[in-house]
């Protein structure tokens, strides 16, 4: 069992049985890797079951089994492998261990070698309180004619055969494959949910390794899979956590989520899978690190790294098809694809997307998604949102070496209630498809958005390094990244010479300079109700005058000299009342 320490449990050795310990050698096991030990192991399990529980001990050795170890209603039973290997024999098919309707069942310190004959390592149905610790499972292969997939561990199946409570720790699952139906899983939790069914839930997977889970068509490290009958609601969270695990070359995904209530935190996902980009589709590369196809899930603090020319098509992906993918948190992840010497994404890897928030089917929704504190390197689109998503918040993310920092795209639908603030997107924001008809969005970042940030007309941009009048921008025109106007009150504006209706937009101080001739101000344009403005005369030639009539209600006509001031307030944006004046 490579890279893992093995705890050796001591029990009876050939006729020296300890209380509660059922040594398979006492039941005729040869442990020579040649003789068939299936009957001996089954007999020891049956004895432990009959006693109401106990430890089935396999002293270190190699145990060949030509038929399945079948366990039913075996509560409080522990299979202790003591570092042994259980090897599938030539006549093996299906699962090496099939455990049904058993509570508090434990397997530890054992290796299962499927020899590409077994289709599943362990198959658990209708169980509770499962514990799998320091177990290695490898060379599991989907068999021709089975009509099913291969898996190192399968928990749950159809109808009422769910499982409540499953802990998998310090285990190594590798070289799981399929050449028949193109589908395999390292570990799969599966239930076909009808009303009243036992659900697969309360799962902890920690400190495990997954490697070489093939094929590229549908080879996944861990799958939380839910199918449902017509009318059944997917409303029972699976309450699962995957943490501290390592995934290496899981050909399609490291983790696939089709259940509510899954947390994927603090894992390392590595791919060297290479392939080609055909202009419209990928071939050979790993599809994604984590795919989220159900609601109420968290993906946080994971590292996704592609090296050796490999790439993730999508680092983290939300695309539930007909499912609802709502209430999702994606935070603190680092995603990096293979790069050239300059650090830019290598062709064809630059077609990749770091984090994609999307909805692929009109019957499903993608909404209430928070993407925060992530870092993406060497992709074409670092962050992507599109296809009719709602209430998506990008906050505090960074990227580099991408063609676009944030890409907003949808061919026909809308992106609504999008907030993008406090991010560092040096490669800019791009917009495509039908987004011009989308609701307005809120963006944010450093520098002026003019020429850098695309958004629908009416959107806002909050600049984190701006000043007075250059902190908040509104999109007033144009279909791309132009047409932004800075708003906010500046310290002062200066009226143009001879202007009888000067603008007081975004200011509360209007400087009045020299004019070429007599100038009588009749209105202050672009005002709003309640706005106060101080008029300050800075010129000395043909200083402007204001009559106590028309739009102005003054204590007396104003004919100022240099340095004089007049303070006004507007009641409705067009009618002005004097507050005070000064003569200097």
End-to-end separation in angstroms reads 93 Å
Number of helices: 1
Q: Which ranges are low-confidence, i.e. pLDDT below 50, for 5 or more consecutive residues?
A: 1-17, 229-233, 433-438
Shape summary:
rod-shaped
Strand count, sense and barrel status of the largest sheet are: 24 strands, parallel
- The overall pLDDT average reads 85
Q: What is the multimeric organization of the chains shown?
A: single chain
Radius of gyration: 34 Å
The secondary-structure class comes to mainly beta
Number of E-state strands: 49
The residue fraction in helices comes out at under 10%
Q: Which range does the strand content fall in?
A: over 45%
Question: What does this protein look like?
Answer:
The structure is a single chain. The chain is an all-beta fold and 584 residues long. Among the domains are: 142 residues, no CATH class; 96 residues, Jelly Rolls. 2% of the residues lie in helices and 46% in strands. It has a 24-stranded parallel β-sheet that branches. The chain has a 13-stranded parallel β-sheet with strand order 5-7-9-11-14-17-20-25-28-31-34-37-39. Strands 44-45-46-48-49-47 form a six-stranded mixed β-sheet, with no helix packed on it. The longest helix is centred in the first third of the chain and has 13 residues. It starts with 20 loop residues before the first strand and ends with a strand. The N terminus is likely disordered.
């Amino acid at each position: 069992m490579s890279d893992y320490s093995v705890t050796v449990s001591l029990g009876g050795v050939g006729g020296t049985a300890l209380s509660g310990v059922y040594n398979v050698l006492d039941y005729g096991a040869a442990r020579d890797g040649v003789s068939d030990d299936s009957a001996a192991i089954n007999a020891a399990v049956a004895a432990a079951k009959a006693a109401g529980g106990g430890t089935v001990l396999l002293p270190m050795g190699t145990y060949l089994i030509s038929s399945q170890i079948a366990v039913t209603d075996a509560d409080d039973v522990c299979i202790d492998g003591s570092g042994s290997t259980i090897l599938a024999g030539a006549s093996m098919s299906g699962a090496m261990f099939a455990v049904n309707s058993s509570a508090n069942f434990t397997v530890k310190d054992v290796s299962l070698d499927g020899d590409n004959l077994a289709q599943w390592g362990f198959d658990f149905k209708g169980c509770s309180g499962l514990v799998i610790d320091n177990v290695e499972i490898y060379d599991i292969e989907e068999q021709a004619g089975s009509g099913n997939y291969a898996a190192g561990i399968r928990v749950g199946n159809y109808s009422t055969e769910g499982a409540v409570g499953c802990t998998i720790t310090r285990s190594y699952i590798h070289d799981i494959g399929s050449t028949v139906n193109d589908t395999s899983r390292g570990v799969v939790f599966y239930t076909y949910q009808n009303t009243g069914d036992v659900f697969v839930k309360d799962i902890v997977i920690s400190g495990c390794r997954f490697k070489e889970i093939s094929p590229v068509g549908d080879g996944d490290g861990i799958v939380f899979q839910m199918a449902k009958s017509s009318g059944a609601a997917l409303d029972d969270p699976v309450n699962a956590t995957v943490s501290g695990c390592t995934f290496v070359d899981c050909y399609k995904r490291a983790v696939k989520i089709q259940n509510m209530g899954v947390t994927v935190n603090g894992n390392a996902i590595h791919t060297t899978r290479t392939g080609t980009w055909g202009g419209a589709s990928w071939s050979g590369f790993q599809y994604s690190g984590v795919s989220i196809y159900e609601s109420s899930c968290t993906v946080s603090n994971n590292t996704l790294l592609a090296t050796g020319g490999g790439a993730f098509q999508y680092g983290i992906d939300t695309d539930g098809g007909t499912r609802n993918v709502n209430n999702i948190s994606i935070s603190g992840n680092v995603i990096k694809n293979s790069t050239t010497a300059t650090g830019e994404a290598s062709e064809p890897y630059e077609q990749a997307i770091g984090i994609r928030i999307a909805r692929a089917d009109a019957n499903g929704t993608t909404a209430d998604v928070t993407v925060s504190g992530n870092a993406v390197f060497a992709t074409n689109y670092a962050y992507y949102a599109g296809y009719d998503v709602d209430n998506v918040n990008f906050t505090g993310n960074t990227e580099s070496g991408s063609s676009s920092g944030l890409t907003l795209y949808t061919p026909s639908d809308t992106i609504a209630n999008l907030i993008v603030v406090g991010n560092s997107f040096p490669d800019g924001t791009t917009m495509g498809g039908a987004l011009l008809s989308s609701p307005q969005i809120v963006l944010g970042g450093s520098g002026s958005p003019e020429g850098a940030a695309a958004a629908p007309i009416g959107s806002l941009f909050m600049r984190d390094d701006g000043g007075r009048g250059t902190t908040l921008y509104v999109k007033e025109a144009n279909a791309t990244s132009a047409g932004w106007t800075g708003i906010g009150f500046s310290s002062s504006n200066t009226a143009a010479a001879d202007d009888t209706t000067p603008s007081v937009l975004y200011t509360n101080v209007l400087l009045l300079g020299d004019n070429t001739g007599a100038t009588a101000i009749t209105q202050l344009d672009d005002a709003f109700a309640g706005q106060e403005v101080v008029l300050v005369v800075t010129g000395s030639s043909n200083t402007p005058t204001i009559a106590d009539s028309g739009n102005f209600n003054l204590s007396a006509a104003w004919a100022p000299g240099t340095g004089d001031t007049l303070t006004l307030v507007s009641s409705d944006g067009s009618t002005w009342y004097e507050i005070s004046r000064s003569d200097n």
